[in-house]
Write a structure and sequence with these properties.
Layout: H1 5-12, H2 22-25, E1 29-33, H3 44-61, E2 68-77, H4 88-94, E3 105-109, E4 118-127, H5 134-142, E5 159-167, E6 172-176, E7 181-186, H6 193-198, H7 205-216
Antiparallel strand pairs: 1-7, 2-4, 2-5, 3-4, 5-6, 6-7
Helix pairs in contact: 3-5
C-alpha cells in the first residue's frame, strides 16, 4: 500500500518534515492556547476548556467526508524494540472499525540532527473522521504528561509521542502537541481564515502579532 504522506508533503508543503513545532516550520500556520495557564491540569474548569477547545478546533478543520491520515510518531532509543508495537494501541482504542486497522502502515527512521541514538517509529492509518473516537483521543493526548489511565506511553521515560491528523482533502495538518497548545498549518493561507476568525480569542498571545501579520499580508 502506497504511503500518501511523503508525496502530500512534497506537493503541498514544500517537503516539510512532519515534526514539532509545525507552526514555526510552516509558511502558513496558527498556534492556539488550549489549557488554562497556571491552573492544575485535573481541575474541572481546565479539563472543560481543554475539551471545548480541542474539539472545537478539530471540528472546524475536519468534516466527515475528508480523507485523513492518523499518524503516530513514537520517539525511542534506537535499541528499544519493545515500543514498536505499543502505539498500535492508539488505533485499537480510538479507531472504531477493527478491519480498518489492517491498513496501518509502519516506518522506522532517524532524523539527522537528532541524538544519534534516537529513532522514530511512525504508524500511519488512512481513515475518516467518522472512523475515529477523536474526542477521547484528544483528551488522552492532553493527559500525556500527567499520571492518568489514558497515558499513551504509560509514562515511559525513554520515549516520546506525537500524534498528527493530516487532512488530505483540505491540505491542512492538526497537531495537539500537549495540553498547552495546538498547531494548525495549511498549504494555503485562506484555508486558515475561518478558524482564525472563529477562534481568534484562543490564539496564543506569544505568537499573536506574527499570526495577525501573516493573515493580513
Amino acid at each position: 500500500m502506497q504511503n500518501k504522506l511523503k508525496p502530500f508533503l512534497k506537493k503541498h508543503f514544500n517537503g516539510l518534515e512532519l515534526r514539532p513545532a509545525l507552526y514555526y516550520s510552516s509558511e502558513y500556520g496558527l498556534r492556539f492556547e488550549i489549557c488554562i495557564p497556571g491552573v492544575e491540569h485535573v481541575s474541572k474548569r481546565n479539563l472543560q476548556q481543554i475539551k471545548i477547545r480541542t474539539t472545537g478546533l478539530f471540528d472546524q478543520i475536519f468534516s466527515d467526508s475528508d480523507d485523513l491520515l492518523l499518524i503516530t510518531d513514537v520517539h525511542t532509543l534506537e535499541n528499544d524494540r519493545f515500543l514498536e508495537k505499543r502505539p498500535t494501541k492508539v488505533y485499537q482504542k480510538y479507531i472504531k472499525d477493527k478491519a480498518l486497522r489492517y491498513k496501518l502502515q509502519y516506518e522506522l527512521y532517524k532524523v539527522e540532527e537528532e541524538d544519534e541514538d534516537m529513532v522514530t517509529h511512525r504508524f500511519t492509518l488512512p481513515c475518516h473522521k467518522r472512523d475515529t473516537r477523536y474526542h477521547q483521543l484528544l483528551m488522552a493526548i492532553s493527559y500525556e504528561d500527567f499520571p492518568h489511565p489514558t497515558q499513551l506511553l504509560k509514562g515511559d521515560q525513554h520515549a516520546g509521542i506525537d500524534i498528527y491528523f493530516v487532512n488530505l482533502t483540505r491540505r491542512m495538518i492538526f497537531h495537539l502537541y500537549d495540553d498547552r497548545g495546538c498547531d494548525i498549518i495549511a498549504s494555503d493561507k485562506e484555508d486558515l481564515r475561518a478558524v482564525y476568525n472563529e477562534f481568534n480569542d484562543w490564539i496564543l498571545d506569544y505568537d499573536r502579532e506574527q499570526i495577525d501579520d501573516m493573515m493580513k499580508a
